[in-house]
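Dear colleague,

Thank you for sharing your sequence with our group. We've completed the structure prediction you requested, and as agreed, I am returning the results in plain text so they can be pasted directly into your records. Please verify that the sequence below matches your submission; if there's any discrepancy, let me know and we will rerun it promptly.
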Amino acid sequence: MDFDYFIFDMGVLNAYTSKEFARCEKQFLVCSLNKWKRELTLEKITQLLKNTCMNQEHITILGNCSMKESRLKLSPNVRFRMIYLPYIENPFQLHSGFFTFFEKLLGQY
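Please find the predicted structure tokens below.
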């Protein structure tokens, strides 16, 4: 079929899936950045970067609207782009109102 985009959901990113993730043209991480989980999540991402061939410049974190920062800083040399996601009641059943957001997201990064 003639598709504009092919989105590959890799599930939980770990040392085994990171090699394929690193080969993707556009890389998006969806993760919990709530105050009580943020430090642990960012620590895991930092460790993953140290132990794999992933390039931080290609990674964009998709976060919720409550995040204040536009770039997350893990250490002096580690930074990620951050995109705010609109609230989606059921992410498994998107309606056409979200298509423009995702088309823009895929075309931008």
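Summary note from our side: The mean pLDDT is 76.

Kind regards,
the structure core
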